[in-house]
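User: Quick one: structure for sequence A, then sequence B.

Assistant: Sequence A:
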Amino acid sequence: MDKWLWAARFFKTRAIASHACELGRIQSNGQPAKAAREVHVGDLIQIKNDSGVYTVEVLELSELRGPAATAQALYRETDASREARAKAEEERKMMQQFEALPEGRPTGRNRRELDRFRGRR
């Protein structure tokens, strides 16, 4: 499993792919998959990584990491998965972006800006 995930370019290294299997982020045909599990053509694999949740069908097997075009030929993403990722992306874009709170006490300048903002001066 970890070799195929690495060859299909879902993870940058086999170690990261193996760790994802240990954490339960990979499911094969609805079952949690271990790194040593064999992948077969036709398997439905659900992959949770930083980019989102992918549900893919295995089309070909490979243990060698090749170019991206070759890697994309190893699987086909389901339509439902593609739509769900697009919807999640839209929701992320619609969320308001907040500025991080400053650390520590405000400076004199910051305090004056806050006072002006609150209408105190």
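Sequence B:
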Amino acid sequence: MIFRKPLPPTPVLETARLILRPYAERDLDAVQRIFPQWEVVRWLHAGIPWPYPDDGAATNWAQCVEQRAKGEKFFWAITLKGDDALRGRIDLWPFDGEKRDMRGFWLDPALHGQGVMTEAAEAVTEYAFRVLEWPFLYLTNALANRASGRVKEKQGAIPVDVERRDYLSGPADGQIWRLDRDAWLARRG
């Protein structure tokens, strides 16, 4: 499967309620304030330092800058229209031929349950399928993270596997989903 690299610059994506803009250094204070909450991180991969250090956002920013410079990943700050403050992040990367995981996200708990992440995920998926013309997305979540699984269900993704993964909260079953471009486009009309 061909996924072009390096990736183009991260575009601004707009939805009814959101502006997804390139993640920027000005977002670090918001990340350092919002991200280190157990409700945000418990189902993220175990490689994230925990407790989150005082320089955690800055360290992660340096990693993002490096990956972006190599054209390996897209990083978007999730913002509400009319308020440029980061409220979460959504990332996208091409299939590497092995690891079945191509998107990650987190969101301020104050916005949970409002459909914000589904809206952001749809915008990123539309970019992947319509602009980049990727044929599929592999998506993952901890099986116990029903809210994340619900985002995938709403998008029409199909569960394809369960495998043991290491999360900050400990080892748990992770669900792997596949969202195919043709099925997503047909659903969207």
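The mean pLDDT is 96. The beta strands are 13-14, 18-22, 74-80, 83-92, 103-107, 136-142, 158-167, 170-180.

User: Thanks, that's what I needed.
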